[in-house]
Amino acid sequence: MSRLAQFAVFGHPIAHSLSPQIHQAFAQQFGIALQYRTIDAAPDAFADAVRRFFAQEDGRGANVTLPHKHAAFALADERSQAATRAGTANVLTRLADGRLAAHNTDGAAMVRDLTDRHDLDLRGHDALLLGAGGAARAVAWSLFEAGVSTLTIVNRSPEAADALADAIGEPARVHTRYWDDLGHIGSFDLVVNATSAGTLGQSLTLPFSLIGSRAACYDLGYGPSAFGFLAWARAAGARYAHDGLGMLVEQAADAFQLWHGRRPDTGPVYQSLSTRSS
Ligand code: NDP
């Protein structure tokens, strides 16, 4: 009997991951049989675990999550433009010659969730991005390409925000401000929380003045990690407040397409996960 095609998600911790059930649900749409498992690798064991998975266990593709996205980018043999811009990878694909290609699907997934699922036209928006880590870097480029008028990046450590704005290199549209100035920088049409504060169990103290009259708010985290930011957004009068569950499903769909050459229908999978988490 032939062995099932092997896929995995690497993280630390990783037991909580929804990726196995998302990929199995996508595979069922096409009648594809595959194995998709979680692999918990501590940072110092990550590179060896990836090599073993691809070289000895016949791995075809892997998702990568915290804290390994920088390491995944570094160990790949080739990198997509989105991965290079972000400096991180959330997808690894084994090429026909055995080399590994790194991709980053986070930014495109987040923008598709906002525009396609939540029906938001980002063109002409003044957007505020909180955070300048790996996910924020991916999201910043995608928001910029989606046509926001201005993108203001604010990070607790200002150097990372400055480096991201410099990398985009459009000073007329992309600015940085200091975290301590959040109360004085006016209001925005879109506020995106790309910090890991919620995931780390920490809360952000944000002024209501950031929320403009037509503002949408988006937290890249999902489930309980997003509750604090979304509660703040609703209390401040945001018209929409969404968590990153849709982004999670969309980035998985992008990975699925890279590996299987087919585009799954994300709607039913998103519906089923959001019903379960509400
Ligand atoms: P990184 O570790 O690369 O970056 C973390 C960012 O959060 C940095 O900008 C850091 O600032 C900031 N930060 C952390 N704690 C605080 C705090 N208490 N106050 C203010 N800023 C803080 O993480 P990622 O970019 O990879 O992930 C960010 C979030 O996005 C995570 O919650 C992750 O789960 C989520 N995510 C969701 C995805 C999805 O599919 N829905 C996909 C990818 C990520 P500093 O530079 O000062 O340390």
TrEMBL record:
Spell out the reaction equation it catalyses: shikimate + NADP(+) = 3-dehydroshikimate + NADPH + H(+)
Q: In which pathway does it act?
A: Metabolic intermediate biosynthesis; chorismate biosynthesis; chorismate from D-erythrose 4-phosphate and phosphoenolpyruvate: step 4/7
List, for all copies, the residue spans of the domain called Quinate/shikimate 5-dehydrogenase/glutamyl-tRNA reductase.
121-198
Q: Which GO terms describe its molecular function?
A: shikimate 3-dehydrogenase (NADP+) activity
InterPro entries registered for this protein in UniProt: Aminoacid_DH-like_N_sf, NAD(P)-bd_dom_sf, SDH_C, Shikimate_DH, Shikimate_DH-bd_N, Shikimate_DH_fam, Shikm_DH/Glu-tRNA_Rdtase
Q: Which residues form the active site?
A: 69 (proton acceptor)
Q: Which residues does the record give as shikimate binding sites? A: 17-19, 65, 90, 106, 222, 251
E.C. number, please? 1.1.1.25
Which residue numbers delimit the SDH C-terminal domain?
244-273
Cite the Pfam families for this sequence.
SDH_C (PF18317), Shikimate_DH (PF01488), Shikimate_dh_N (PF08501)
The identity of this protein, by name, is: Shikimate dehydrogenase (NADP(+))
The opening ranks of the lineage are: Bacteria, Pseudomonadati, Pseudomonadota, Gammaproteobacteria, Lysobacterales
Annotated gene:
aroE
